[in-house]
Amino acid sequence: MEPPETRYAKSGDLHIAYQVVGEGQPLVVSDQWFGNVDAQWEFPPMERFLRRLASFRRLVLFDKRGIDRTALLSGVGLSYVGILFAATYPERTSALVLVNGYARISRAPAVG
Length: 112
Hints:
The chain is an alpha/beta fold.
């Protein structure tokens, strides 16, 4: 199966690559390992994961810049970015899904 078409949105002087695949309510996928929307379709486990998600949601994949009000899925190393985005822009976030997520990158001191 062919990967979805890569399109570009303009943000100031930048052109941000994005793809849309599937139908239904939108789910924005932010992944730490793939900064390039095309490369993730060349890694079979990621392709299977994305195709599965696209079977019940409209996925919006992007090159790490620009998001509308939507559900946001963030994986491991970008979970703190998803948390920060949702806390900073609650009016632009309808849901937040964290996969193996964490809010800190270092141990917190014991409380109490």
